[in-house]
Amino acid sequence: MSVPEPPRPAVVLLSGGLDSATCLAIARQQGFAPYAMSFRYGQRHRVELERAEAVARHGGAVAHRVIDIDLAQFGGSALTSSLAVPKHQSVAEIGDQIPVTYVPARNTVFLSFALAWSEVLGARDIFIGVNALDYSGYPDCRPEFIEAFERLANLARKAALTNPQPLRIHAPLILLRKSEIIRRGLELGVDYSLTSSCYDPDPQGRACGHCDSCLLRLQGFADAGCRDPVTYRTGPYRTGP
Predict the structure, then answer these.
(1) What CATH number does residue 117 fall under?
(2) 3-state SS, residue 153
């Protein structure tokens, strides 16, 4: 009787938000042993890292590493400096310009660290929860970026010289609407009460309800026909923006 092979390791970038929590669940559902990686990158609040720890534990990560880097040294983003986080009353007000919440080169840096860990683990798979539909227009969330980084990764890693099997960057949410992501996550047992998507939470971790990320999240839950379980500043739950 043959012994089944153990699950293949995969590095999963985990922010503590809705998308990355769903991505972790997808990696597990596809049979991977997920190794979660989060970053203390100079962001203005710690809520997302607290949530990432809870999501990693609930989502069955084999290990969870929090990497210290300091993108705040460069500034240029409302998430790493004193710039104000834009607030709106509805998704329609978000507009089509790249907002000041964009953190320059963040996904490039994160994927580079994931690539390094994948080499040590002997993993050929990296998961990232980027989305190119219901998002704020960040350039490093586009399919072209993911495809280009995958090409780079397969040139850069040591295994490329000895192992013909390529590394894959999985972005399973990239062409899904937020409501589709939520439905998929619920099917896989994701506990969205553990997540935080807000760009400007208060000291208690309550979401603001008016930043781009909150509005897109709230709209996604409304479109999915279900309730967002996280707490917003205006009360335990907002039905919409």
Answers:
(1) 3.40.50.620
(2) helix
Q: pLDDT tens, 16-71?
A: 999 999 999 999 999 999 999 999 999 988 899 999 999 999 999 999 999 999 99
Q: Sign of torsion, CA 25 207 223 78? A: negative
CA angle 11, 111, 211 (to 5 degrees): 105
Answer whether residue 238 shows pLDDT above 80. Answer: no
Among residues 52, 76, 72, the alpha carbon closest in space to that of 64 is found at: 52
pLDDT in tens, 59-106: 999 999 999 999 999 999 999 998 999 888 888 788 778 888 999 999
C-alpha 24/C-alpha 22 separation (Å) is 5
User: Is residue 2 included in any domain, yes or no?
Assistant: no
Q: What is the residue type of 141?
A: C
Residue 229 placed within a domain? no
Q: DSSP label at 88? A: -
CA–CA separation, 133 and 141 (whole Å): 9
Name the 3-class secondary structure at 239. coil
At position 76, the amino acid (one-letter code) is G
Asked if 21 contacts 197 with a C-beta cutoff of 8 angstroms, the reply is no
Tell me, what amino acid is at 97? Q
| Cβ(207)–Cβ(201) below 8 Å | yes
Tokens 């949410």 belong to residue: 173
Could you give the number of structural domains in the chain? 1
Question: pLDDT tens-digit profile of 139-184?
Answer: 999 999 999 999 999 999 887 777 778 999 999 999 999 999 999 9
